[in-house]
Amino acid sequence: MAFPKSTAFSEEDQRLAVIADALAHPARIAILRILAKRGTCICGEIVEELPLAQSTVSQHLKALKEAGLIQGEIDGPRTCYCLDPRSFHAALADLNKLTAGMKKDADACCA
């Protein structure tokens, strides 16, 4: 019998899955690097730095925003994007919890 993910998995695990999904595309990683370097950026400025169409960049920005990794503030006809440091810190904390019990010995996997 299947269970809805909202009850079968913890909120922390669901949050990590959303973040992992958002980070699973190299274009999104590139966008995050651009935003980290610049602080804030308009979509058109991001498009200038990537070999992607504006519509594709917009789709990636939407996915990053839905995952909570970036924020977008409407400024007239443009949207100004920036990283959301609180989400990054929360994701890092969740990852640290996930790996807290990890064995340090690389050979311990099948031993």
Could you characterize the architecture of this molecule?
The chain has helices spanning 5-8, 11-22, 26-38, 43-49, 54-66, 85-99; strands at residues 40-42, 70-75, 78-83. The chain is an alpha+beta fold and 111 residues long. The protein has one domain: Winged helix-like DNA-binding domain superfamily/Winged helix DNA-binding domain (Arc Repressor Mutant, subunit A), CATH 1.10.10.10. A three-stranded antiparallel β-sheet has the order 1-3-2. The protein is elongated, with a radius of gyration of 17 Å.
Record field, number of beta strands: 3
CATH superfamily: Winged helix-like DNA-binding domain superfamily/Winged helix DNA-binding domain
Proportion of beta-strand residues: 5-15%
CATH class: Mainly Alpha
Mass-distribution shape: elongated
Backbone CA Rg? 17 Å
Kindly identify the CATH topology. Arc Repressor Mutant, subunit A
Nearest-integer average pLDDT: 87
Enumerate the strands of the largest sheet in spatial order, edge to edge or round the barrel.
1-3-2
**Helix percent band:** 55-70%
Series of secondary-structure elements, N-terminal to C-terminal: HHHEHHEEH
The class by helix and strand makeup works out as alpha+beta
**Straight-line N-to-C gap:** 34 Å
Poorly predicted tracts of residues: none
How many individual helices?
6
Oligomer: single chain
